Amino acid sequence: MKRRNKLWTCLDCKAAILLTPLNQAPSYSFDGQTATEIPEDDLAKFRKEHQGHQTEILTIDLQSYVSYSPYSEPMAEGYFQAIGEKGGTYIVKRWRNCIDQPRKWAIVFQQKHIKKEIEKIEIQKVAITRLINEEKGDLQIIDNMIDYFLGVLEMHKDKIELDQAVPDDTFPLKSYASFTDQAIAEITLLCKRGFKDGEFNFINDFIQQQKDDILRIVVEQNYWFCPLNA
Ligand SMILES: [Zn+2]
After folding, report:
1. 210 and 148, same structural domain?
2. How far, in Å, is the centroid of ligand 1 from the Cα of 15?
3. How far away, in angstroms, is 10 Cα from ligand 1 center?
4. Rounded to the nearest whole angstrom, what is the distance from the C-alpha of residue 69 to the centroid of ligand 1?
5. Which of 14, 183, 209, 218 is surrounded by the fewest CB atoms within 10 Å?
6. Which of 86, 110, 134 is the last residue of a domain?
7. Residue 21 is part of which domain span?
8. Rounded distance, CA 133 to CA 140, Å?
């Protein structure tokens, strides 16, 4: 059992505590001369506080994390989906009140799940233009033709493999999705019509080399909490 993924919760109070070895971390008292270790068990304290209440251990789905803050933000407020021992679905909030205090947890919804929706999809125009200009060598690809290429990409930007999008390292709701094979075929055909032979060969190679790299679409999502039966 991966303890880091488990929360001990009180369903009556909506309170939650993460089950980690830190639950058993000692705290110290200092009387001015000597520091004395006080054995403290946060979990025991939590259980005592919620004695007689309805408690349950939840398993957090770490992949479900959503937040509008970057991963690096220590004060970030975010949400996870979690499953109870009896099969209930929960949304738990994780936040921090103070930079030097541990993160707090609470149950915010029962029988709801996190649903993501696309907020914005964008071609990586600046990076594509820069890379074409770097790689074109002696080929005369005028700016108009780069614009044509970007226009063709723009036309197809909703034809992407969203399920296989690669998550961004910095922002939880940002990812990079490749065009579908069908979209790549259509983009290639439109380029064949628009570009002269030499230019087309270059653009065709560019598409093949970059389709899972710089040609990926930047997807930004937002989220909401959806009732299970909706
Ligand atoms: Zn309670």
Report:
1. yes
2. 7
3. 5
4. 30
5. 209
6. 110
7. 3-110
8. 10
Please tell me the distance between residue 12's alpha carbon and the centre of ligand 1 in angstroms: 5
144 and 160, same domain (yes or no):
yes
Burial of 93: CB neighbours in 10 Å, binned 0-12, 13-18, 19+? middle
> pLDDT (tens digit, 9 = 90+) per residue, 155-208?
999 999 999 999 999 999 999 999 999 999 999 999 999 998 889 999 999 999
When pLDDT is cut at 50, 70 and 90, the band that residue 99 belongs to is confident
In angstroms, what is the span from residue 158 Cα to ligand 1's centroid?
47
Q: What percent of the chain has pLDDT over 70?
A: 89
CA of 54 to the centre of ligand 1 (A): 7
Burial of 8 per CB tally in 10 Å (0-12, 13-18, 19+): buried
Contact status, residue 66 vs residue 223, Cβ threshold 8 Å: yes
List C-alpha distances in Å: 124 to 118, 136, 183, 212, 230. 17, 18, 16, 12, 35
Cα 38 to averaged position of ligand 1 atoms, centre (Å): 25
Q: Please tell me the pTM assigned to this model.
A: 0.80
